[in-house]
Amino acid sequence: MTQTATMAATGPGELPADEFRIAHYTIMPQRHYGRFLAAAAILAILAAIARAFAMGDIEWRYVGMFLTAPAILHGLANTIVLAVFAMVLGIVLGVVFAVMRLSKNPVLRIVAIGYVWLFRAAPALLQLLIWFNLALIFPRIAFPGLFDVRTVDVMTPFVAGLLGLGIQQGAYTSEVVRAGLQSVDQGQYEAAQAIGMTRMRMLRRIVMPQAMRVIVPPVGNEFIGMIKLTSLASVIQYSEMLHAAQTVYYANSRVLELLFVASIWYLGIVSLLSFGQSFVERYFGRGDRGGRR
Amino acid sequence: MTIINAAPLVRAIDIRKTFGDFEALKNVTLDIRRGEVVCVIGPSGSGKSTFLRCINQLEQIDGGAIWVNSELVGYRRDGQKLYHLKDHEIARQRRSIGMVFQRFNLFPHFTALENIVEGPVQVLGEEPGQARERARALLAQVGLADKETAYPSQLSGGQQQRVAIARGLAMRPDLMLFDEPTSALDPELVGDVLQVMRDLARSGMTMIVVTHELAFAREVADRVVFMDRGEIVEVDRPEQLLSTPKHSRTQEFISAVRV
Fold first, then answer.
1. Cβ–Cβ below 8 Å for B151 and A191
2. pLDDT by residue (tens digit) across B96-123?
3. Dihedrals phi, psi of A250, to nearest 5 degrees
4. Is B62 helix (H, G, I), strand (E, B) or coil?
5. What is the ipTM of this complex?
6. Which pLDDT belongs to residue A289?
7. Which residues of chain A are within 8 Å of residue B109 when distances are taken between CB atoms?
8. pLDDT score at A143
């Protein structure tokens, strides 16, 4: 009550009374006891898990030994190659079908809708198996006058993996790209048209670069998913990382050890990718930082 | 040659445009001569912006016809039949028309200079070095010579709008359209933009300006068009239309704005 009384007494333009001048007081830091407790509990749990692994029936020296074994490194390389090419295929298809989906042309639009519907519906593993066994439907692949080959010769595990994973990835990516294209302000489309750009040039020069800010984080996410999805290709005899690890442990029975080897490499690739993603994001975010808005 | 020059730069005849049931434009007819500055005023929803957007085909008209530079806008004529133009033909028609938007719509991933250079290099196929040279001159012309490397997010609204004007001018347009160019600006930033437009008008550019700045219209416009409910109600010299409007709807609007 005294405070309100004092405030009331202080008229406009007058200096406030001394009891409001507290700028020289010390601000005490907050104590977060809960955080210390939680951190301690987590460390204890981690230590217990680490102990269990150390005491378990695992020969850790095998993990170290096989981490850089030629067979494993070969599998690692194959994993990376398949993931990168499948992702590139997925992104290309994703962009093409997203642009088709937003086209004024109803034929293109419906084709795009159908593509996404079909290839998102079937499990990735199933699609890999179908591509790998495509020769049962199309014994030969031919283009009159250009080439004519037996499907079994062309549909190697790599090609089947690439098509299976890349095409289903394209269905997911096209939805991400569509969201990105739609996130760009209508005024940007109009400004690009007003300087006489055709639709394709507008998409390439103005809309896509801005859509990338929305597209990159989920695509980075899906790239990481793709790294792990390639392990499905072990089923069709593509010698990627998991397949390599399995081949080794069928021979020496060091199952867990080799699965750990594979895990370590997956962890490494994914960490590297997450790191790279932040650079890509920074590039496409240029122009919207360090300024007024 | 004289015949072509005597023809109006913009000729709009019986333009109709509907959005669903709403008639945005009802039989709008207007000729604009080369070098003329026309300000379009009227209450919101009167169709002024729609009219402007029809001229460079950001909206498709539902009836009537528009000619720019004696060329039919949006259609190819074959005898008594009209065929819609293709995407690249529409894009070509838009090249000769510059447009400035209420919300600037600068490309945020490009610097001020890149915004201006984009059209000449990508659309007109100009040599990048020359285009940059000219873009610098245009930036100087709008008083932003020192902002070449600034991104739009680092510029004030007034500065962004002046870059947007320079971007339009870089296409060497025959006609500049301004869609409420100062409506989204803080009051203290309006003056710089209007000054650039004033200079442009003096240089002989043909301009159609949708605006609420009646003082600007009075000073710069050769003619003022008053629109209401999708119709052109009155067209006259600014001193006539703004001081002694003939039509009662114009009178109401002018006195309401003048409070």
1. no
2. 999 999 999 999 999 999 999 999 999 9
3. -65, -30
4. coil
5. 0.93
6. 53
7. 209-210, 284, 286-287
8. 85
CA distance A205 to A177: 15
For A98-166, give the DSSP string. HHHHTSS-HHHHHHHHHHHHHHHHS-HHHHHHHHHTGGGT-SEEEETTTEEEEHHHH--HHHHHHHHHH
| Structure confidence by residue, pLDDT tens digits, B50-69 | 999 999 999 999 999 999 99
Give the pairing of strands B97-100 and B71-72.
unpaired
Query: For chain A, which residues score pLDDT lower than 50?
Result: 1-7, 290-293
Residue % of chain B over a pLDDT of 70: 97
Instruction: Supply the DSSP symbol for B77.
Output: E
Residue B105 is nearest to which of A191, A287, A290, comparing CB atoms?
A191
B254–chain A nearest CA distance, Å = 30
- Give the residue-averaged pLDDT of B74-78: 94
Q: Which of B9, B96, B94 is nearest to B58 (CA)?
A: B94
Residues forming a β-bridge with A142: A148
Whether residue B231 contacts residue B26, with contact meaning beta carbons closer than 8 Å, is answered with yes
Q: Does B144 touch chain A (CB under 8 A)?
A: no
Segments in B56-127 forming alpha helices (H): 87-95, 112-118
* Residues B233 and B249: beta-carbon distance below 8 Å: yes
